[in-house]
Design a protein that fits this description.
The protein has about 325 residues and is α+β, with helices and mostly antiparallel strands. It has helices at about 65-75, 100-105, 130-140, 165-170, 175-190, 195-200, 205-220, 235, 250-260, 265-285, 305-325; strands at about 5, 15, 20-30, 40-45, 50, 60, 110-115, 120-130, 140-145, 160-165. It folds into two domains: about 5-135, no CATH class; about 170-285, no CATH class. The longest helix is centred in the last third of the chain and has 23 residues, at about 265-285.
Length: about 325
């Protein structure tokens, strides 16, 4: 079997063997809505890290969400026996399913789940170059209209109506977000009454899990709902009604809530950080009119820079001209 360079899902740059990447698992959409970046494929909105192995997959994968991702796929995959072509129609089984089986079954087009109508759909993945994504997360400054002179730059010619921030500012608001989430969960769990007959058959830990499950439904599995959409907490901006267009193979909100309820603040912060990283990145994909989809040009080892530099130069000139016209 030959080797090839993978394609970065955002920059479309080549990915060499040994390059560190972020990996997002994506599910095929059988009903297309072309308004969004999720028109054809929906990501699990948490990444894991990996190293490109030169053959279309990853190795030495890691990340706080990786076990949850593999378990989510494992529980929903459609099991398959070896097909007519024993070299490519590989068996796909829940037992023993892990990192290697994930990349191999995707490569052979054998990883499937059922959609809400019971129709089989493909599960795939997209890789993003870690250097590109980390650079964007460090340097991209975005703005949000808040109006009424409530911005964070008094010298802003717009009338100080915008808040300007970077991803680091989003992360800086996560402790306050978790503080409020802890408070809301405690308040709502205190309101949950467990039938005594049922409670007598449960341990204290099971009662706690039971209450937490009910509260998850009370929040409609929407972490951002604990804040008003006009609130200034930047972490909440990237969680508000964030689940309707994305893969549900992993119950992201449920898992974060369980970590908070169990008192594991460190884990909750790690889980939330990666979910926010993915949500911020999705905003970037949307902003450049991108689509979540598997990388193309499988088999190609092309890595010529000339076309990329010509394209970025042309884009910059076109954007500069647009900006000039707006100013005029």
């Amino acid at each position: 079997m030959g080797c090839w360079n993978k394609t970065c899902g955002l920059s479309k740059l080549h990915i060499y063997a040994g390059d560190p990447v972020y990996v997002f698992v994506i599910e095929q959409n059988l009903n297309h809505d072309r308004c969004y970046s999720t028109a054809f494929w929906s990501p699990i909105l948490v990444p894991f890290e990996s190293v490109y192995n030169d053959y279309g997959g990853g190795e030495d994968s890691s990340g706080v969400w990786l076990p949850y991702i593999l378990e989510g796929i494992r529980s929903e995959l459609i099991e398959q026996e070896v097909g007519e072509n024993q070299y490519h129609d590989i068996a796909v089984k829940r037992e023993g399913f892990g990192e290697e089986q994930f990349f191999e079954s995707v490569h052979e087009g054998r990883l499937l789940t059922n959609d809400w109508q019971g129709k089989p759909r493909e599960v795939d993945f997209v890789m993003f170059r870690k250097d590109i994504i980390d650079d964007i997360l460090t340097n991209l400054e975005v703005d949000k209209y808040v109006g009424e002179g409530k911005g964070n730059r008094p010298d802003d010619t717009s009338g100080n109506h915008y808040v300007y921030y970077r991803f680091a500012d989003v992360l800086a608001d996560t402790p306050a977000f978790l503080d409020k989430l802890e408070l809301v969960l405690k308040e709502r769990m205190d309101l949950v009454e467990v039938n005594q007959t049922i409670a007598d058959k449960m341990t204290e830990e099971q009662i706690l899990d039971y209450k937490a499950t009910l509260v998850q439904y009370m929040l409609y599995r929407d972490l951002g709902s604990i804040y008003d959409y006009r609130d200034t907490n930047k972490a909440a901006w990237y969680l508000y009604r964030n689940g309707s267009r994305f893969s549900s193979l992993v119950g992201i909100s449920d898992i974060i809530i369980q970590a908070v309820v169990s008192g594991n603040r460190t884990l909750a912060e790690q889980l939330l950080t990666e979910h926010l990283r993915a949500s911020f990145l999705n905003m970037v994909v949307d902003s450049v009119r991108g689509l979540w989809m598997p990388g193309g040009h499988e088999g190609s080892q092309a890595s010529e820079h000339t076309g990329y530099r010509a394209l970025t130069a042309a884009i910059n000139r076109a954007l500069d001209e647009e900006h000039k016209r707006w100013d005029e």
